[in-house]
Each structure stands twice: as structure tokens, then as C-alpha cells.
Amino acid sequence: MVRAEIITIGDEILYGQILDTNTQWISLELDKLGIKTVRKSSVGDQKDEIVQILQEAQKRADVVFITGGLGPTKDDLTKKILADFFDCTLAYHAQALQDVTEFFAKRGRELSDINRDQALLPAKCTFIPNKQGTAPAMWFDELETIWVSMPGVPFEMKSIMETEVLPRLVNHFKLPVIVHQVVKTVGIGESYLSDLIQDWELQLPAHLKLAYLPSLGIVKLRLTGFGDSAENLHQQISEAFAQVMPLIKSYVFGYEKDELADVVGKLLVSKHATLSVAESCTGGYLASQFTQHAGCSDYFLGGVLAYANDVKMSQLGVSAQILSNDGAVSEACIRAMATGVRDLTGSVYSLATSGIAGPAGGTPEKPVGTIWIALAHPTGVITRKLTLGGTRVQNIHLTSLTAINLLRRFLLNDLAE
């Protein structure tokens, strides 16, 4: 196994002023090649600390990726530190100087001394061009380790990795074959899912490894196979998932990059059906789960954001009696909201939400996290009461997710009313 370490350099990352997306992207790309990331580190613009991390990385990694610190200003220290670290001098690189000169000429700008110094590179490095910016990348084969130093600007780094670095890694290392497949589940917690499939998991062959990847409301099951043939691994992983599918079929909504609302939208299109929504506590979040996907206009008609009771009455036909006797957070109200928006838009199906998302507004009878959802369909209305315990944002997300999943299971005839 080829081991990698990723180091990001810059005070702005440690201060939280810039979100580090580089390490995640690099890790994903390395994983596709069968290179295992063993450590990720961030360090500020201090020479001693950078040198210490480089020394530590050399002891545990076969290839070290460094992003940041290659700009033209005085706080950009990476090139000088690497030159010292590898015991060499900085010198102007002919191709790098030509590239930076042309970069400014094409933009009608004069090449200043500080920008000319972008072509100063450690003598022991292999020059890697940067087609998107002025700071070239550098490849070192030193201390029995490969070192790759790249700009911290994400689109520049990605371009360099894709066009130059990744092909070089494939040629340099003998890489294993690693295959991942992901199944996505909804409506079941990680621990319950683990209990459900534990016998299957224990019987997996040694070269197939299972990982649980939970997020709010969704748990991904990832099988990773290690071997010599990608084709064989894909087949073996598919067969393994097929064996467990009877146990988890009700919870599985998709694979790899599938998103729940998009999957449900495609189900609606396949049935030539349409959808509308009536939202109170979710405040438009439910609708946005559908409208963020291209093609939603084929099935999504619209919705009503009925936060106030007056809007529930005037737009959705919720009666004053229901609001007075049962309240807005009630089964009676959510039924009326779902049927009201369905009648208003003429949709085949509708979803409705009403509840107390928090952090305030709860009562002993209806504490924070009390939510009602409903699905109206051509022959009736299905309701569910949720008792959630998260933050406001979490409760809104889980409410929307649960409502969408309610529709999914109904469309698949996998729901007992």
C-alpha cells in the first residue's frame, strides 16, 4: 500500500478564514488510484513548524502533498523552506520564467520583480507547469519519498493534479486495485442497521471491507474491495450487496451519488405524477430539496409556505375550528394542509409539514421537536407524527427527509398505511 500525507500551509486556514477543500479532494483522487491517505495536517506560516511537519511526514509517507505558500508575497515561505530542507539553492527556471512572462503579457500587464520571482525554484525539483496561474508546482524525489508542492488555490491545484501529478504517480508507483461501491439508506439509524446486517457483515471475505458512513438522516454502506482485477472486484461487491439486499431493501434509496429527492422525482416522472408541498416549520426547505435538481419542473408544480395561521386558512383552506381546537401542530391541521395544496395546484401527490422546530415555542403537551407530516394521494391522506430532538436546522432537515422518504415508500408500494 502506498501511503500519502497531505499538508496544507497558511495561517488563513488555521484561523478559519479559508475553508480547506483541497485535502478532501486530493484524498478522493488518491483513493481512486489505491493510494491510502494516512495523515492530514495544517500548519501556519512559521518556518520551524513547517520543517517539523515535513520531518514527521517523511517518516510515515511514501508521497507527501503540500498545498499553499507558493505566492509572491513575503509570507509565502514554501519554496525557500523546501530548498533548505533538500539542501539546495533557489534558481530561476527557464520554462517557469517563460510561462510567468507570457501569463502577464497575455493580460497586458508588466512583469514585476516580485512576480518574476515566481520562477525561482529549488534546484532539486522537477518543474510542473501551472496552466491556471503564476506559481508552478514542484516534484521532488528525495529522502526516499516523493514530495509534491502545489498552489493552494483549489482550481489551480486541481488542474495540476489532473493533468500532471496523477499520471506521474501512476507511472512511478506500483499501485493496488481498489474498488468502492456505496449503497445509501434512509429511515434507519447506524446502530440499528449494524444489528440488522451483522451476520452478513461477519461472513464477508477478508478482501472486502465494510464501512458505515452516517450523516444526518442517511447512512451509507461502503464496500471496499482489494485485489488485482477491478472487474472481478466490482462483480464480487455487487454479489455481496445482493445477498444483504433482502434485509435492507426498504431502506435503500440509491447508490453512489444518488440524492433522495432526485430519486423520488424520477419515480414521479416514471409514473407521470406531479407533486406539490405545503410547508410551515420547514420554511421552504422541503421544496428546495426537489428544486435543486435539474428536471424538477417535469413533476414539481409548486408549494405554499404557510407559516402564519392566517395563510394556512386563506391559502390552504385550514379551518379556524381546527386551529382553535387542535392547533397548527396537529394531525387535523396537517391533513387539511396536504389536501389543501393538492386541491390548489392539481397535483397528484402533496406533502405537508407543521411542527415546532425550536429552540423555543414548545409546551409540555407539544415540546420542541414535535412535528407532523402528511402525504395526500388520490385516495386518501397518510400522516406521521415525529418526535425529534435536534437543533432547529437538524429538525428542519430531518422533517423534510422523512416526508420525502414517506412519498418514496408509498410510490414503491412499500408502506402500510
Automatic annotation (TrEMBL):
SUPFAM superfamilies: CinA-like, Molybdenum cofactor biosynthesis proteins. Pfam families: CinA, CinA_KH, MoCF_biosynth. Transmembrane segments: none annotated. Residues 5-172 form the MoaB/Mog domain. InterPro entries: CinA, CinA-like_C, CinA_C, CinA_KH, Competence-induced_CinA, MoaB/Mog-like_dom_sf, MoaB/Mog_dom. PANTHER family: NICOTINAMIDE-NUCLEOTIDE AMIDOHYDROLASE PNCC (PTHR13939), NMN AMIDOHYDROLASE-LIKE PROTEIN YFAY (PTHR13939:SF0). Belongs to the CinA family. HAMAP family: CinA_B. This is CinA-like protein. It comes from Aquirufa avitistagni.
